[in-house]
Specification:
444 residues, alpha+beta, Alpha-Beta Plaits, 3 domains, 13 helices, 26% helix, metal-binding
Length: 444
């Protein structure tokens, strides 16, 4: 079998000639071995080659769905060193290597709002923010994927570590039955999948985000993270252990004999859940599914944030509500009061609201308690209605703050008029002053 679906090439028991042609293929390759014991595929980046030995139909269909959704690719990066005779003959003047460097999606990035999690995560300082954009030094990048896993919005992706690929797989599992576990591991791990297991290869287990683990658990799948090299300099083994412990400490989950997270009770969550490929939105959907299993606490690895608003300083101006890039704030009514609500599951901790707050009343921290409701009330204020037309138009806090900032003395009647009535009132006063009319009955 030789077939090509988009950029995905599928070979079954390929000949040497087919393998030679496959090495020039620009995209992922699935090699299915049914009669052959092994093949030589040197020359291709390991994240572009997937070798399956007598796979089940479920495993093959799931892998095809994942790879057909791939939107990233490895790239050639120039390095120092002598070029080979072959490179010279094909016209290369510098030595290059194929690297799995992160791809940047600017429209999903929150760097312009103050987020710099990818920069803080990079162990080699290969990531920086220039003019509110993420810039990656391809030569310094070591393909660990930490920047990808730490990004709260999915603005960075690598071959094998891309929300698009992962969501395509999870959605496919709504129809493909028989897979009960996802095991994340790197290309160094060459073992065959066990019964009901899907091996998801990532560049390094450092690239596995808490969002991905949560999304799989919300589908009642077991989740395993395997680092095949305990002495790996990238620290994958320690990261995997820390992530597993974070989930065990925050949710009522079981752990299997081979250290996989499991739902572990008779109660099962609905397996059918559709993800959209928008990282934070999918994460919130999965966390809400897992809320009944929460232990009431959380871990800093889970990217959940809390907010404190100084009730004395807050003027209820609404800047936080209007400018939050993740729409974590909302405004509602409670009787004759206005309420500012906050959804901590939506918050990515960028700090944009705190920087914009004119009263400097907002403080953001990593949450210690798991939010047991979609939103919490953080500030109340009295609704002020127009004394002329009766229409609600502002809050008591905001009016008092503006009064102080503008140095308004006393308690003038126009201060309690809506914008429309205030224009009418001002025009009326100007006309009365121009005509010299005095002691006009107040409209307030």
């Amino acid at each position: 079998m030789v077939s090509e679906e988009g950029k995905l090439l599928i070979l079954e028991d390929p000949s040497d000639e087919e393998l030679n042609r496959a090495r020039e293929h620009n995209g992922p390759i699935i090699i299915v071995l049914r009669k052959l014991g092994s093949v030589n595929v040197q020359g291709k980046h390991p994240m572009n080659i997937y070798i399956l030995k007598s796979p089940s139909d479920e495993e093959l269909e799931a892998l095809k769905a994942q790879l057909m959704a791939r939107r990233t690719s490895t790239r050639e990066v120039a390095i120092e060193g002598p070029i080979s005779r072959r490179e010279l003959l094909i016209g290369r003047v510098v030595k290059v290597i194929e690297k799995n460097v992160p791809t940047y999606f600017e429209n999903a990035c929150s760097a312009r709002f103050g987020c710099n999690d990818c920069v803080n995560a990079c162990p080699t300082n290969a990531t920086s923010i220039v003019n509110n954009r993420v810039v990656i030094n391809e030569n310094a990048c070591i393909e660990c994927g930490l920047c990808v896993s730490k990004c709260p919005t999915g603005a960075l992706a690598m071959v094998g570590a891309d929300d698009n690929e992962y969501v395509a797989l999870l959605n496919k599992l709504n129809d493909v039955k028989g897979i009960k576990r996802i095991t994340f591991t790197c290309p160094l791990n060459t073992r065959e999948p066990r019964n009901g297991e899907y091996i998801y290869r990532v560049p390094c287990v450092d690239a596995v985000s808490p969002e991905w683990v949560t999304m799989a658990l919300a589908k009642s799948l077991e989740v395993s993270i395997e680092c095949p090299d305990q002495s790996c300099k990238l620290g994958g083994a320690d990261y995997a252990k820390g992530l597993i412990n974070a989930f065990m400490g925050s949710f009522k989950l079981g752990i299997t004999k081979d250290d996989a997270l499991s739902m572990a009770t008779d109660e099962t969550l609905s397996e059918r859940i559709i993800y959209m490929g928008i990282r934070r939105n999918d994460y919130v959907k999965a966390l809400v599914r897992l809320r009944p299993r929460s232990k009431g606490v959380t871990n800093e690895l889970l990217k959940i944030f809390s907010i404190h608003i100084d009730d004395v300083k807050c003027s209820f101006c609404g800047v936080c509500f209007a400018k939050c890039p993740e729409r974590a704030f909302d405004v509602g009514r409670d009787g004759n009061k206005t309420v500012l609500k906050f959804n901590s599951l939506k918050c990515i901790g960028c700090g944009h609201c705190a920087r914009l707050c004119p009263e400097k009343a907002i403080t953001i921290n990593r949450a210690r308690e798991f939010p047991m409701s979609d939103s919490t009330d953080v500030v109340y204020d009295e609704v002020v209605t127009c004394r002329m037309c009766g229409k609600p138009f502002d809050t008591r806090r905001h009016i008092m703050t503006m009064k102080i900032k503008l140095g308004i003395k006393g308690d003038p009647e126009w201060l309690y008029l809506c914008p429309d009535c205030r224009r009418y009132y001002t025009a009326k006063k100007m006309l009365e002053n121009a005509l010299g009319v005095k002691e006009v009955k107040s409209y307030v």
